Sequence to fold (419 residues):
Amino acid sequence: MLGVAGGIAAYKSAVLLRLLREHGHSVRVVPTGAALQFVGKATWEALSGEPVTTSVFEQVDEVAHVRIGHEADLVVVAPATADVLASARAGLAGDLLTATLLTTAAPVLMAPAMHTEMWHHAATRENVRVLRDRGVHVLDPAEGRLTGSDSGPGRLPEPEEIFAAVQQLLASPGEPAPGLLQGKRVLVSAGGTREPLDPVRFLGNRSSGRQGTAMAAAALAAGARVTLVAANVERDVLCEAGLGAPGSAAGLEVVGVESALELRETMLQLAAEADIVVMAAAVADYRPASLAETKLKKQGDDGLTLQLVQNPDILRDLVAQRAAGTAPAGQRIVGFAAETGDEHGTVLEYGSAKLLRKGADFLVVNEVGAGRGFGTAENSVTLVAARDGSAEVIGERRGSKADVSQWVLSRVVTSGPSR
Fold:
């Protein structure tokens, strides 16, 4: 079912309807009375091939608000105005659309569109929060030109983006819908950096690169063009993810790096053309202040003192580069945080603080140590999104790293831009 509320963006929903029909979906359109002031009944009936009504007092013999709600596999409301969001939150049933929302057991996807001040209003933000808590999938609006000369967050997401979210919700649980990332460019980092001490030794970490390569494989399966920046990832790890040798998978490019500085330079360069950036690599926090030209020798029984300097924060640098305007519009940046809790805070508390501090859109938080995270076949993660200056938990997932990757990518796309 495609619900259409009364906003000027209703014309975009005609394009969404055509996309749905072209991909084999049967669609019943339920506009509000106000929506018909923008796009007429004849248009909806011609594009859907189904009768269109707005009132529970039409086609009474069908008991339309019950039948449509029961038969739907998915209910999409686009545009979802501030009024419809408020009605849905309050459980009002003043017309066929809102009555159907109360009777359906199908997943519900809402794509808001309204003026910026309406979207930022405390009442609207609270309505969205409550709906999301109830399991309603509410996309964030796009940012850009609104009605008249105004500009800001409040635009209806493009029909293709809403369609991708529809495909994901109709896909098998945990799997990326075919074509979910069609035409998108995804940049993924994987592995662990090594900071050389001398020609044979380095400082490193336990990351195998399995989670990052699984993210790259999931993006590839969803139709994206993928660049994987692999920091010391073994070939067998690539093969486990179905990526084979570098360059062997269509739509995939693998770039090898070793140190944090090499990773930073490569990521910043490639992120300038990426729609989604996933920083899954484990980056060393420090590197030796100097590199010995020859192998360091033992000095009797004395210990060895190393001077370390801090490595750059690559995730924060990626966010800064986007803010400077040198990235595609709507770019989404996803970070990973391998955390351990202590007496001062939990894993989730540390991860949420890191998300807000670094300015990324999403952070995948996972607890490491004691056989969890690094080098294992499975992972348990919590996905956190930045929303209006706070960290919002999107959900939790436990399973294979392939399953976790598919789940994370689908939530990143269907949750909409968080900025």
About this structure: The radius of gyration is 24 Å.
